[in-house]
């Protein structure tokens, strides 16, 4: 007889599976959203996104008409609102039903009956605030690190989707040790020791997980940051043949699509300005980008081919301290979210 208790999902795991609330998440590259509405599954929701033809602003609602549940993504873009294809019900970007053509003046008109999402656009990506309150008036501002905001830096967005729970991607990035093995044939990660001692170092916004006594040799450290958006930062040393700008910085953020699909966002950045900026951008597009995709593909193949329950059957050791620490942080945040929901 099947053990039904074993089939009940842990509440903390259920929270983490779809993404913590009250945080910003990247949901797609900016190029995905044009005037024609699109439908995306993200963060446990089916969303409709569209771009206002006049203002250029991206809007987002749950892809569910409050009348009968038809997909708004099949509807008509009316600028700051969208008209459902099924009965013409018009829903504004803040979730308010503004017009019911089939029954003018009915109680549905004027109600905030649809879940809305606050949207920000930056660095070639669309970000959504995953609010607990479906009609939150004003979210905190989107905060990004200097590598994505300072004019002294230049970056490219690399977006892909991996066939795994997004938490496996997070585990991969907080683990610098895999670079010396999985990426040992890489043009930038062939150096350094294949064994190392690690340490955790606290910061005001998170922590570093880093190799002791080895810096600027390989993938030697990862920083996890909570800026109201969860981000990860790492550096890869680059030879002079890789162009100006010193070490190559990667800023990462990872978004649940389903429990078997993750949106993987990596911004590849270097500190360059003037002619060096132009040189770096030319080199990246003409020489380096393909190499970087090859490295990322090595990660994808390793992670996608893990069993879904691989993290339930682990034997961890010293260089997995970062994985353990970050999982503990996320579980604590999920537990607080559950407690807050009870009040």
Please write out the topology:
Elements: H1 11-18, E1 24-29, E2 38-42, E3 45-51, E4 58-62, E5 76-77, E6 81-83, E7 90-92, E8 97-99, E9 116-117, E10 119-122, E11 125-129, H2 146-149, E12 153-162, H3 166-173, H4 179-182, E13 198-203, E14 206-211, E15 221-226, E16 230-236, E17 248-258, E18 261-271, H5 274-304, H6 321-342
Antiparallel strand pairs: 1-11, 2-3, 3-4, 4-9, 5-6, 6-7, 7-8, 10-11, 12-18, 13-14, 14-15, 15-16, 16-17, 17-18
Helix pairs in contact: 1-6
Brief summary:
By secondary structure, the chain is of the alpha+beta class. The chain has helices spanning 11-18, 146-149, 166-173, 179-182, 274-304, 321-342; strands at residues 24-29, 38-42, 45-51, 58-62, 76-77, 81-83, 90-92, 97-99, 116-117, 119-122, 125-129, 153-162, 198-203, 206-211, 221-226, 230-236, 248-258, 261-271.
Structure description:
With 343 residues, the chain is of the alpha+beta class. It has two domains: 20-129, 3-layer Sandwich (Rieske Iron-sulfur Protein), CATH 2.102.10.10; 146-333, Naphthalene 1,2-dioxygenase Alpha Subunit, Chain A, domain 1 (Alpha-Beta Complex). 22% of the residues lie in helices and 30% in strands. The protein has six helices and 18 strands. The protein has helices at 11-18, 146-149, 166-173, 179-182, 274-304, 321-342, and strands at residues 24-29, 38-42, 45-51, 58-62, 76-77, 81-83, 90-92, 97-99, 116-117, 119-122, 125-129, 153-162, 198-203, 206-211, 221-226, 230-236, 248-258, 261-271. The strands form four sheets. The chain has a seven-stranded antiparallel sheet with strand order 12-18-17-16-15-14-13. Strand 3 (45-51) and strand 4 form a beta hairpin. Helix 1 packs across helix 6 (321-342). It is globular. The mean pLDDT is 90.
């Amino acid at each position: 007889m099947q053990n039904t208790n074993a089939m009940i999902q842990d509440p903390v795991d259920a929270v983490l599976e779809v993404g913590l609330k009250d945080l910003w998440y990247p949901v797609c590259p900016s190029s995905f959203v044009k005037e024609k509405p699109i439908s995306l599954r993200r963060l446990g929701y089916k969303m409709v996104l569209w771009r206002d033809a006049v203002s250029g602003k991206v809007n987002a609602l749950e892809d569910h008409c409050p009348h009968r549940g038809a997909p708004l993504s099949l509807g008509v873009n009316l600028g700051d609102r969208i008209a459902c294809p099924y009965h013409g019900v018009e829903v504004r970007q803040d979730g308010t039903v503004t017009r019911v053509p089939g029954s003018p003046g009915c109680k549905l008109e004027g109600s905030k009956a649809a879940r809305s999402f606050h949207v920000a656009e930056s660095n070639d990506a669309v970000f959504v605030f995953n609010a607990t309150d479906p009609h939150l008036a004003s979210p905190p501002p989107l905060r990004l690190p200097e590598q994505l905001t300072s004019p002294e830096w230049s970056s490219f967005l690399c977006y892909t989707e991996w066939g795994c729970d997004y938490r496996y991607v997070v585990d991969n990035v907080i683990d610098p040790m895999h670079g010396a093995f999985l990426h040992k044939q890489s043009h930038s990660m062939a150096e350094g020791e294949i064994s190392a001692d690690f340490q955790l170092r606290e910061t005001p916004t998170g922590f570093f997980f880093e190799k002791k006594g080895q810096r600027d040799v390989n993938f030697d450290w990862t920083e996890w940051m909570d800026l109201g958006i969860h981000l990860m930062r790492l550096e890869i040393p680059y030879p002079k043949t890789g162009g100006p700008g010193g070490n190559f910085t990667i800023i990462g953020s990872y978004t649940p699509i389903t429990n078997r699909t993750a949106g993987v966002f990596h911004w590849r950045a270097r500190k360059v300005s003037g002619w060096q900026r132009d040189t770096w951008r030319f080199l990246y597009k003409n020489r380096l980008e393909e190499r970087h995709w090859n490295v990322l593909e090595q990660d994808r193949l390793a992670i996608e081919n893990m069993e879904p329950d691989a993290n339930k059957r682990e034997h961890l050791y010293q260089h997995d301290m970062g994985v353990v620490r970050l999982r503990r942080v996320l579980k604590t945040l999920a537990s607080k979210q559950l407690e807050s929901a009870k009040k």
